Amino acid sequence: MRREQEFIDDLYVRVDRLRGATETAVEDALAQGSTPMQARLERDITVAERSGLLAALNAVDGSLCFGRIDTSSGTAHHIGRLGLRADDAERTPVLVDWRAPVARPFYLATGHTPMGLRRRRHIGTDGRRVTELHDEILDLADTERTGHEDPTGDAVLLSALNSARTGRMSDIVQTIQADQDRIIRAPHRGVLVVEGGPGTGKTAVALHRAAYLLYEHRELLARRAVLIVGPNPAFLGYIGEVLPALGETGVLLATVGELFPGVRATAVDGPRAAAVKGGLAMAEALARAVADRQALPDPVLTIAHDREVLLLDDGLVRVARERTRAAKLPHNAAREHFEGYILNTLTDMVAERIGTDPFDGTNLLDPSDLTQIRDELADNPEVWSAIDRLWPVLTPQRLVADFLAAPEDHLSAEDADAVRRPVTRAWTPADVPLLDEAAELLGEDDRVVRARAERERAAQVSYAQGVLDMSYASRTYEFEDKEEGDPESSEVLSAHDIIDAERFAERQEEDDHRSAAERAAADRTWAFGHIVVDEAQELSPMAWRLLMRRSPTRAMTLVGDPAQTAEEGGVGSWSDILEPYVGDRWEHTRLGVNYRTPAEIMDLAAAVVRAQDPAFEPPESVRSTGERPWIRRVASGELSGAVGKAVAELTPSEGRLAVIAPRGLHRSLAARLPGVTAGAEPDLTHTVVLLDPRQAKGLEFDAVLVVEPGHYGTSDLYVALTRATQRLGILHTGDLPAGLSTT
Ligand SMILES: Nc1ncnc2c1ncn2[C@@H]1O[C@H](COP(=O)(O)OP(=O)(O)OP(=O)(O)O)[C@@H](O)[C@H]1O
């Protein structure tokens, strides 16, 4: 113990020194103030890199080193949350990053396959103080004993599983199990599906896999960023501290509803509307809605031009439309072609009228006359309003809002009734994949993009010019008595000539120091380096289309549990989802041990699913507590009071309690539970949290009280029953659902 403490003290001396040097480097760089452009760029890069290192050092402070392996050949390695090297010429490793290959036996070695290890040591710390050691002897021929032997080898794991919950998920880097480690370190390319029942560590594994990939493919993933998709904001808040605690910040956490920049989905759909919006048929329906906006005159459009009237009939427009469509461009991108065809058609009409020789019918106009006619037509606002009616430039928001306001043209009457809504209503998460689909169908009119880029550039140039003028002005007073042509005066000007305004503007573009994750969040067409999807069973086919667009290389990790599918539009089977994108080229792997729910609670939850599916096999719980969950029936007028009493009974002295109840009861229950947190995004760090079963997805608590289980569907109930790490109580007024009643 003393020697480990000395080692750890030494580590912190190094870390503190490193931190001090890094802080000084950042301060020095920032103190450079307004330096020449190149130096400023370098300064900003230094600041960004060093700040990242500083954040990582601060994040791991207090839990830097957690393990040690001793090999049969006599070497030893300490394992930690990040790697540290000595200052010597060889840069000797002092602490090995848990993700490095050298650290792997720490997670995989067994007495059966010791992987060259003699001993594995878990080091428990409280801040910088070593509090406990747990040794596993892996080489049975080794007779040396330390007095810290852990005969079963699972004391550290069990203590982690039994510890009080905080409302925030913590990392499992000290106790990653062998089957989890294999998934975490699986190759980055391709689609990996990780399936497993409640509490099998799917979320934990997914997050550690992201950290591993960022370590292993740092260069690629720092540039392209990693996206982690979760089912709702509360869940993202729950898992949000795991990666920073592992020193990784270059990750974007988002729900699908947050993946259309500029749109906030604040409304909610009913289950039926969400299911219809999530169905693949929506892609075709939206494509038809776009085609419908490429209109034909009914029967003619009149355009007043040059004291004449031009008639655009449906035959002429149909030809222009077919030719435009033949280019197979998205709607807005194709508009330029359509404009060209219409202008040509109108030019021909005018030319024929004014240029035809009345005697022999030949056209007397030369090409320059035709150009002039075309230019005059292009100056006529009536021509443009006709084009706008026939091929309007559309935004995704406009298209989807119009579509949902009158869906009957493209959906069955039943589906249309389910999704119809006023144009002005706020967006829902299920609308976001529709907006994304619409953006793909519409594309962008390149000219608009080019013009916008040009405008931005012009603005930057004029800003830069302004800056230069100001700095010039601020200097000229020293030289104001200099004559033009004076050598000193030209020296001043030459200083400004080094960078002209345009180059200054370019520098500013390069100067975009947002992290890749920040830039990705603002860019709908960003291609992520890797995408991790948690609760992947919940995503609709339309949501998959959106995500696949963000992952052209198909480097993805999908974790989920079909038995916990709540959304009507959710997954049927993994192959159904993946087949259109990767055929059968995807890997499937399972996690079968439940680390969260004790056996007593799991037995009860499994009985609920078995009542529907007798062949159902739940994951095996790694521990049992000896405490059976309880079920109590109360009279309906006494439910709130009974909940109050049960909360008092179940609230842990340390840790968290969730009351999971149907939404309709929340108001009355919240009134009876002082200090409870509830609502759309409840603060999970509160001691008592009131949730509906959908909100409970993916979360965990020391104790859970399930209210009115008969009101939930099977999968929602299964989720609710499997959230507790220690104790479960159930209160009901009516009949119990099948499965619960028989236990
Ligand atoms: N190797 C491990 N060491 C310590 N704790 C672990 C380990 N694996 C999983 N856990 C813990 O088990 C609990 C359940 O893990 P997690 O939430 O990742 O499971 P899940 O499979 O995503 O569950 P669900 O499907 O119910 O959301 C968490 O508290 C997690 O920290």
TrEMBL record:
Positions bound to ATP: G196, G197, P198, G199, T200, G201, K202, T203
Keyword vocabulary terms for this entry: ATP-binding, Helicase, Hydrolase, Nucleotide-binding
Domain of life of the native organism: Bacteria
SUPFAM superfamilies (UniProt xref): P-loop containing nucleoside triphosphate hydrolases
Annotated InterPro entries: DNA_helicase_UvrD/REP, P-loop_NTPase, UvrD-like_ATP-bd
Annotated protein name in UniProt: AAA family ATPase
Lineage: Bacteria, Bacillati, Actinomycetota, Actinomycetes, Kitasatosporales
Domain UvrD-like helicase ATP-binding: start-end pairs: 175-598
